[in-house]
Design brief:
single chain; alpha/beta; Enolase-like, domain 1; TIM Barrel; 2 domains; 8-stranded mixed β-barrel; globular; binds 2-phosphoglyceric acid; binds magnesium ion
Length: about 425
């Protein structure tokens, strides 16, 4: 019996649409016996330290660069040598932030390659990437109500109100619990304050965070009484979006109130204490390592998570970890541009005893790679939304992986994540 060949014999890049209706890039990689494709997701609240998503000439330039520079180099390479492929992408680009070929083209090529290799070898993707120890499902953070850059109605200044279900015996039950809370919020909210869904499928509201959280709390309590699942609450402040560099203040669009760093610190701490928040992401803007560290020290029972602050960048994660700026780190492959650097960022996070949180972007596709990445790397938490086809697809894939793992599969225990 001979092994199927994992050598790449064709590759192409095409235009596709993401869930926001914006153009993105899909890369297809063919081996003799297999195929993989991946479309780059895209953020709305992008951090300054992320790689550049498209070259200055946009998607068209990225596609011609693929034809001229990338395809000729990677055809003939072995798709099973992921690190070599990713190094080649970096060499072709030659800049520190993928500004020549664009991070969207890079990540689409890198992940399509991993999928092609796994398919060729006929190994489930999470096992191909993670091996025999890839058997734990993450706790899903679900975005129930959204504001900030993901929403176009004035009201909620923070970007995401997250529910964190735990204590169920299966991932399917965790999803069921999240969906029930989402639907309960629609029923429980006073008339006229919910306006459909935003970019991430979260509910849009005219209410501010102090009025929204009690409704979410009530909905969680109601569902907890009906089924055997408990909930914690979280918030992604996405504070870089609120930061005004001219005045050096955080300004809330709904009220026009502005806060200096110290006052905003008190605002966030009050929010955490008042609602017993379990998880807060990006409470300060993307350069505020010291405020992050101060909060991590003071908010003892709350997981402080970095996103724009670290941008899946190993140096920024290491620096922040060394000054104890956070407990958890958002991991988004397209923030860094290659699968190898994404996995290195996860390893770096673990090496400091911190929690990697694999995350979707607000502009997504129905692709399910994220679910495989989270299980493969043993990431204890995942953020992939609740409603909408491009969010549900990832949740359904976790359920498929759970079925595939059978009795070997377990879910991370939330209690173990407590500081
Ligand atoms: C975030 C993400 C995903 P975006 O800030 O965590 O929820 O948003 O993709 O718009 O950066
Ligand atoms: Mg975020």
């Amino acid at each position: 019996m001979s092994f199927p060949s994992t050598i790449i014999n064709d590759a192409s890049a095409k235009k596709r649409f993401n869930s926001r209706g914006d153009i993105t890039i899909e890369v297809e990689i063919y081996t003799e016996n297999g195929f993989g494709s991946f479309s780059a997701p895209s953020g709305a609240s992008k951090g300054a330290y992320e790689v550049i998503d498209f070259p200055s000439g946009g998607v068209d330039e990225a596609l011609s660069l693929f034809e001229d520079l990338v395809a000729p180099e990677i055809i003939g390479m072995d798709s099973a040598k992921q690190f070599e492929l990713d190094r080649t992408l970096k060499e072709i680009d030659g800049t520190p932030n993928f500004s020549k070929i664009g991070g969207s083209l890079a990540i689409a090529t890198s992940i399509a390659n991993a999928i092609a290799a796994a398919n060729t070898l006929m190994i489930p993707l999470y096992k191909y990437l993670g091996g025999v120890y890839a058997n734990r499902l993450p706790i899903p953070l679900g975005n129930v109500i959204g504001g900030g850059k993901h929403t176009h109605v004035k009201g909620l200044d923070v970007q995401e109100v997250l529910i964190i279900p735990y204590g169920a015996s299966s991932f399917l039950e965790l999803v069921l619990a999240s969906v029930r809370v989402y639907k309960e919020i629609v029923k429980m909210a006073p008339p006229g304050v919910i306006y459909g869904r935003n970019d991430e499928g979260a509910l849009v509201t005219t209410l501010n965070i102090f009025d929204v959280l009690p409704i979410v709390q009530d909905a969680c309590n109601k569902v907890s009484k009906e089924i055997d699942v408990k909930f914690k609450l979280g918030v992604d402040v996405a504070a870089s979006v609120l930061w005004n560099p001219k005045s050096n203040k955080y300004c809330l669009p709904s009220t026009n109130a502005c806060y200096d760093e110290d006052d905003f610190y008190k605002f966030i701490l009050n929010l955490i204490n008042k609602f017993d928040l379990f998880y807060v992401e990006d409470p300060f803007m993307e350069d505020s390592f010291t405020s992050f560290a101060r909060l991590r020290d003071e908010a003892e029972t709350c997981i402080i998570c970095s996103d724009d602050l670290t941008a899946t960048n190993i140096e920024r994660i290491s620096y922040g970890a060394s000054i104890k700026a956070f407990d958890a780190v958002i991991i988004k492959p397209n923030q860094v541009g290659t699968l190898s650097d994404t996995i290195s960022a996860i390893h770096t996070t673990f090496s400091y005893g911190l929690i990697p949180v694999c995350s979707h972007r607000s502009g997504e596709t129905i692709d399910v790679f994220l679910s495989h990445l989270a299980v493969a790397t043993g990431s204890p938490m995942v953020k992939c939304g609740i409603m909408g086809g491009e969010r549900i697809s990832k949740l359904n894939e976790f359920i498929r992986i759970e079925e595939d793992l059978g009795e070997w599969g377990t879910i991370f225990e939330l209690e173990r994540l407590l500081k």
